[in-house]
Design brief:
heterodimer; A: four-stranded antiparallel sheet; 5 helices; 11% helix; 35% strand; disordered N terminus; B: alpha+beta; five-stranded antiparallel sheet; 37 helices; 50% helix; 11% strand; flat; membrane (chain A); cytoplasm (chain A); protein transport (chain A)
Chain lengths: 440, 934
């Protein structure tokens, strides 16, 4: 909700800023100039960078009183179409080069005509850069070709299954505010297998006593699901007796890379436990950071960095900081300390940073509305290959492919940090979840 | 610049604003150009696709009538058949355009021949299942044909209702990716056929069966029912077939459709499921449990349209398909997905809306309003608590949901939850302290609004909010308009205005207590805005406000500086104070204040106003005062005679009070019928007529070097009263007529002033001088400002004045005494030039007709008298010339042939030809006509 940057205050304009108008729906209303002041509704929008994608779903209902959005079939189709368009234009990275974007925009009319002729969505556009390698037209036998698969794969059979788990955390270092963390994972698949409707089964397994995977969402190509797989839900009471695998996902793969399933998981401890103490002394700040790697986590990082930003201060002057492990760098902009912990924590599984930072410059550094006074944070960035926090894994031998040629099977897994914050325990930190207050 | 670039520019200009684009040309000529280029063999496919896109986007603008639509569709069909096989994408585009034009111009609804032929052709195309005949490369054409048929069936429900067996067989045979298209087409046809059957009183087994076995023609009659087929969830009562029909066959069809639904793309699958749900809802013999096999797959889906379709099933079938356990499970899934880290924000917002409109098996109310399902407890919704890290829409959406949750919750639990929400609001307000950007402020105030709407009754909380807001205001007076906006909205939306009043009292107090240093000129304008709003509240005492104002004026240099804006803002507060019900308690103080301003403020206007207020205050009773100050309602006739603008600060009041508006026509312009011979193009005295063997054309053209020569068309009108006007308007004075053009083909028309119009006198004549840039027909919007006898001023719209094509005709602009020989020479030269296509916009055309009762001579006398070039005596050939400013000519040679009369047409601007044609058609329309183009 808060925007960084130098936004100059603009005056209050009632038409636009009316507090009684609820801006909490995926559909907005567009007021048109001209006689009668008519409005367009429901306008669905997706924003990515400077790009705003919008569509106006058909309202098959009397216009007054305005029907609730969930009663209109076209709304979810519009949302799906917009998501597809976003993937088509921006690709997986989300930030295409201007010339790439321009060429994709040029192709847009013909793509839209194909997936949405006469304004009726039939499909989502193919995601950018997802052209499958070797595709032949369907053989045209008795078996019906799925509409989501333009042809059949020809060539070597390869099945790759990549499991990525992300961990988020907010750590406060206070007894009054409970630390929180959560884990979510997704399984991306790319199956180059012959046949019109080849059968593939991917099985996710948990270690003994692993906590069940929750909120499982599956790709529409999954043919059937066992009811027990869906029972665990993060909004429920944690039930340790719940089904904990193996999780079987039988499906018939599309040609392109796709997300087979996603899940959330509750793990007993965050992978890295941190404490951050920042104190103001005369004209400098005194910082003390301790990071502790949990013993169950594989101590072999692809990278691990702690970023320590300073907001609403002048630029940094002299920095007298020592670290027990890794190296410390001062960013070019003189407003951020980067502690590069490298590939390994020391044997003690603990690393510390201590020292003072002076702000001698007269040039003001970056501002942030949240981080005033001693409200400050450290953000961690790390990635561990061949490891998951939930313990979830896809065994190479558990991938079953029912096809004539025996495929090569590649499976990988990794743990990546995402929004991993450690707040200064001597300052006020913003509360990030009501779950803490409401449920415990 | 290539032709493609030119078209690119033209089409983007059109797409940007069709009305603006068509102001410089006509839809007819633009359409003609488009079709012409589409027939051009040299134009590439890419360009043609671009051209077709215009017809796809704006069919009704280019084809305003059914007949134009039919002609256009025919043209497109010929383009389609002449397009080579390999231009697949172009062909698909043309097919969609034909379908679009046929549907949008009502050719389909009116059952025209073209629509019928097109349907037949489409149906023929889809017969080629599995690309047996045309090959794989033609597959997209077949897919498009299915899409076109589906669209036609949607717009004309029942069209395919007698072809279901044929469609079913096609669907069964097709095994390529197009299977989906056939499947959707069949399912829609099936659903519509059943829907139409439900409107029938008694349905026999035979009739029911005949739907599935239909293999006949298209059912044109069905759309005469005038059915608008809303989805069943939009209907008060679901239409149903009578029970007891034999559904065995239908059931097996439904099962196979469901089984194969997996082969469809998620979006199409969701559409298919919805159609099938509607079928089951309409046929009592089918059980909703048919869907049971699909449910588990759907429950787990990550796709938003499939999840939505599942909720539609839930809404339609409730406990006949979903057990209480299913319901609980589904709701939990929804709550989970509404905050799933891997889903996109718009989807999560949509899921939250779905929670608030969750179709419960046992709903407590079914008003369609937002309501919280009984099963959503604080524990379940805990993960949806708003946080400062959310984007604004998510945050507001979660806050609203959680407010509802805690409003419903048991006491102990609710207290905790409300406290959390309150802390969240406080955290937001704290952010404003550090970041005053508009988005942050507006979002935080919206959150505050939502919170207060639910919990304003909790006094300790709502008072803490007021304290916080006042505290913020003391530091950030720029928040004044936001705070006023919030007070206004809360007052409007809550029955009890007490919160807003308390906030305003707090703000007033806050301003009173400010150290003088903080009352800088900049901040003062905010404070005055707040005080002005405070003065509107009858419940708030105003003594302190007046003291403060007086104090500031006396103890600062404001009066000496004499800033008009500040003075005006102070007076705006005073104006509201004058209306305050407890004015008698502060009468003396207010009088002192006004008097002080009127004496000391160094700005004459402010002084005058202050003195005026002082006079009003000291001479009128409060009731009268309030009456005087009451604002005239915007628009509509003010009830009583209002006073001049009292305060400039009040937007719109000045204009409202001085000029009244009437929505009815008071005056109108009536064309004066005149003889063509009377028309002249103004002065042409400059032409020397002495020379003899001159090149008359050069002389003629030379005249145009004189600026403004022959550029005006003068039209004469009588200004009369419109019918049935109020007697008030019987005599109107000092009328000012103002003209607005609807297009940019003409120069701006000057205002015309008329001294008076009396109902019982001869109407005055006004001359409207038009200066065309392009001599096309046009329409003028006319408005008038005038005064009635009682001295009030009025503004009123006149009926639009349309200027037809022949009204722009002028005779050849040569002096009246020019001999026939030189006129004829000019005529012949222009004709020759046009015939040899110089200038390049020239064109030649032919128009034929047979005379009826009227002789040709009569016709010529009636219409061409003033424009004749040749000797009147000649009875074999007539030459007629219409001059159209700024410099266009339409030349006619009229000859009496054996069986018809031929009119040869030449013009130096071919864009005029459609108008010439329709003009000739118009004047000869009781004769039989044929048109030939050269």
């Amino acid at each position: 909700m808060h925007t960084h940057g130098q936004d100059r205050p603009k005056p209050y304009v009632e038409v636009r800023d009316d507090y009684a108008r609820q801006h909490r729906s995926p559909a907005v209303e567009l007021r048109l100039d001209g006689p009668g002041g008519r409005t367009l509704w429901p306008l669905l929008t997706v924003t990515q960078g400077a790009l705003i994608l919008a569509c106006l779903p058909l309202v098959e209902a009397p216009p007054e009183p305005r029907p609730p959005l969930p009663s209109l079939a076209s709304v979810s189709q519009g949302l799906a179409l917009l998501s597809g368009l976003q993937d088509f234009l921006c690709g997986p990275g989300g930030k295409p080069e201007p010339d790439v974007l321009a060429s994709r925009l040029a192709a847009l009319p013909s793509v839209l005509l194909q997936v949405c002729p006469l304004g009726r969505p039939l499909d989502t556009p193919p995601p950018a850069g997802s052209v499958p390698a070797a595709v032949a037209p369907s053989p045209g036998g008795a078996q019906k070709q799925p509409a989501w698969k333009a042809g059949v794969h020809r060539g070597r059979a390869v099945v790759s299954v990549a499991l990525t788990e992300k961990v988020r955390s907010m750590q406060y270092g206070k007894s009054s505010q409970q630390d929180i963390w959560d884990v979510y994972g997704m399984v991306m698949c790319k199956c180059e297998v012959e046949g019109v409707l080849p059968n593939v089964t991917v099985t996710l397994t948990l270690p003994p006593n692993g906590s069940p995977l929750q909120d499982i969402l599956v790709h529409p190509c999954v043919t059937s699901l066992d009811a027990s797989i869906l029972t665990a839900c993060s909004v429920d009471e944690n039930d340790c007796s719940a089904f904990s695998g193996p999780y079987k996902f039988p499906f018939s793969p599309p040609l392109e890379l796709f997300r087979l399933c996603s899940y959330t998981s509750q793990v007993p401890m965050p992978p890295i436990l941190g404490s951050y103490q920042l104190k103001a002394e005369e004209n400098h700040l005194k910082a003390n950071v301790v990071l502790k790697l949990h013993e169950s986590v594989k101590n072999s990082f692809e990278y691990c960095e702690a970023h320590i930003p300073f907001f609403n201060q002048n630029l940094m002057g002299s920095v007298e900081v020592k670290v027990s492990s890794g190296q410390l760098e001062v960013s070019k902009e003189k407003s951020l300390l980067v502690w590069v912990l490298g590939q390994k924590f020391p044997k003690s599984h603990e690393a510390a940073l201590e020292g003072t930072v002076h702000f001698s410059g007269t040039v003001a550094g970056p501002t942030d509305p949240l981080c005033t006074g001693l409200t400050a944070y450290i953000k961690l960035y790390f990635r561990v290959a061949d490891f998951t926090l939930s313990g979830c894994c896809v065994d190479q031998h558990s991938v079953q492919v029912y096809s004539s040629a025996k495929p090569r099977i590649v499976t990988t897994r990794e743990l990546v940090s995402s929004e991993y914050y450690i707040w200064n325990s001597t300052g006020d930190a913003p509360v990030s979840s009501g779950a803490v207050t409401a449920s415990h | 610049m290539t032709i493609t670039d030119l078209w690119d520019q033209k089409i983007s200009a059109f797409q940007l604003s069709p009305s603006q684009f068509l102001a410089t040309t006509t839809s007819e000529s633009f359409l003609a150009e488009l079709l012409h280029e589409l027939r051009n063999d040299k134009a590439n496919d890419h360009l043609k696709i671009l051209l077709v896109s215009v017809l796809l986007d704006h069919p009704t603008i280019l084809c305003p009538s059914s007949s134009v639509g039919e002609e256009t569709a025919l043209e497109l069909l010929s383009v389609f058949s002449h397009t080579p096989q390999k231009s697949i994408i172009l062909k698909c585009n043309v097919m969609l355009a034909i379908t679009n034009v046929i549907i949008c111009t009502s050719c389909l609804a009116n059952h025209t021949k073209m629509a019928e032929d097109w349907l037949d052709l489409l149906f023929q195309m889809i017969q080629d299942t599995n690309d047996y005949r045309c090959g794989l490369s033609q597959q997209p054409i077949r897919a498009t044909a299915c899409d076109c048929l589906r669209e036609m069936e949607t717009c004309s429900p029942g069209l395919l209702s007698q072809k279901l067996e044929a469609l079913y067989l096609l669907k069964q045979q097709e095994t390529t990716v197009l299977h989906q298209s056939y499947c959707m087409l069949y399912t829609l046809g099936l659903k519509n056929a059943i829907r139409i059957l439900t409107t029938q009183k008694d349905v026999t087994d035979l009739e029911f069966k005949s739907i599935l076995g239909g293999n006949e023609g298209f059912a044109w009659k069905s759309n005469q029912l005038g059915l608008t087929l809303l989805p069943i969830n939009m209907m008060v009562q679901v239409p149903r077939l009578p029970p007891g029909l034999d559904c065995k066959e239908l059931k097996s069809i439904m099962s196979s459709l469901l089984e194969e639904s997996y082969l469809q793309t998620p979006i199409s699958q969701s559409a298919l499921l919805r159609e099938l749900v509607e079928v089951v809802a309409m046929v009592p013999g089918l059980s909703p449990t048919l869907f049971k096999s699909q449910l588990l797959r759907l429950f787990g889906t990550a796709d938003v349209s499939l999840m939505h379709a599942t909720l539609f099933m839930k809404d339609t079938f409730t406990d006949s398909l979903f057990t209480a356990e299913d319901e609980n499970f589904l709701l939990k899934r929804l709550v989970g997905t509404a905050q799933h880290p891997l889903l996109r924000i718009p989807e999560k917002l949509f899921y939250m809306e779905c929670i608030l409109h969750f179709p419960e098996n046992r709903p407590i109310s079914s008003s369609g309003e937002e309501s919280l399902p009984v099963l959503v407890t604080p524990r379940l919704a805990a993960s949806l608590h708003p946080t400062v890290f959310n984007d604004s829409a998510t945050m507001l959406c979660r806050l609203n949901l959680l407010c509802l949750v805690h409003l419903e919750a048991d006491e102990g639990e609710a207290d905790k939850g409300i406290r959390y929400l309150f802390e969240h609001i406080m955290a937001l307000l704290k952010i404003i302290d550090n970041d005053g950007s508009r988005e942050v402020v507006v979002t935080s105030f919206r959150a505050l609004f939502i919170f207060l709407m639910h919990f304003n009754g909790m006094e300790n909380l709502s008072e803490k909010v007021i304290d916080k807001l006042c505290d913020m205001y003391s530091r950030h007076s720029r928040l004044a308009p936001n705070l006023i906006g919030l007070a206004n909205r809360i007052q409007e939306h809550l029955d009890d205005p007490v919160w807003s009043v308390k906030l305003l009292i707090g703000l007033q107090k806050c301003i009173m207590e400010m150290p003088p240093l903080q009352l800088t000129i900049h901040n003062l304008s905010w404070h005055l805005k707040v005080l002005k709003r405070v003065a509107q509240e009858g419940q708030i005492t105003q003594r302190n406000t007046i003291y403060l104002l007086l104090n500031i004026l006396i103890n600062s240099n404001l009066c000496e500086r004499g800033n008009w804006q500040v003075g005006n803002a102070v007076l705006a507060v005073c104006r509201n104070l004058l209306e305050h019900p407890s004015i008698d308690q502060v009468f003396i103080e207010l009088a002192d204040l006004l008097q002080y301003i009127s004496v000391h403020y160094d700005d004459t206007d402010i002084k005058d106003h202050a003195r005026f207020y002082y006079t009003l205050l000291t001479n009128l009773s409060w009731e009268k005062l309030a009456g005087v100050l009451v604002k005239g309602l915007d628009g509509g006739r003010a009830k009583e005679r209002s006073h001049s603008a009292i305060m400039a600060e009040n937007e719109g009041i000045a204009s409202n009070l001085t000029v009244h508006k009437t929505n009815r026509h008071v005056l109108q312009l009536i064309k004066v019928q005149e003889e063509a011979s009377q028309r002249s193009s103004g002065s042409s005295e400059l032409l020397e007529t002495t020379g003899e063997a001159k090149n008359w054309l050069e002389v003629y053209q030379g005249q145009f070097h004189t600026p403004g020569f022959g550029s005006d068309v003068n039209l004469r009108y009588n200004l009369t009263h419109a019918k049935d006007t109020d007697p008030l308007f019987d005599k109107v004075f000092t009328i000012c007529l103002h003209f607005e053009l609807k297009d940019s083909n003409y120069a701006k028309v000057n205002d015309i002033h008329v001294p008076c119009v009396f109902r019982d006198r001869k109407p005055p004549e006004v001359k409207v001088k038009l200066k065309p840039f392009q001599p096309y027909p046009t329409t003028l919007c006319v408005s008038a400002v005038f005064t009635t006898q009682d001295g009030r001023s009025w503004h009123s719209q006149l009926p639009d004045v349309s200027v037809s094509f022949p009204e722009i005709f002028l005779p050849l602009p040569l002096p009246p005494n020019t001999s026939c020989e030189c006129k004829e020479q000019v005529f012949d030269r222009i004709w020759e030039a046009a015939a040899s296509e110089n200038p390049d916009k020239s064109a030649i055309s032919l128009f034929c007709f047979k005379t009826g009762d009227e002789s040709l001579a009569d016709l010529i006398k009636a219409h061409f008298q003033g424009y004749l070039i040749t000797d009147q005596q000649s009875k074999i050939l007539w030459k007629v010339l219409f001059f159209l400013p700024p410099m266009c000519h339409v030349l006619l040679k009229i000859t009496q042939a054996e069986d018809a009369i031929q009119v040869s047409i030449a013009t130096d601007n071919w864009e005029l030809l459609p108008f010439v044609n329709s003009y000739l058609q118009n004047i000869t329309d009781h004769c039989s006509t044929t048109v030939t183009d050269d």
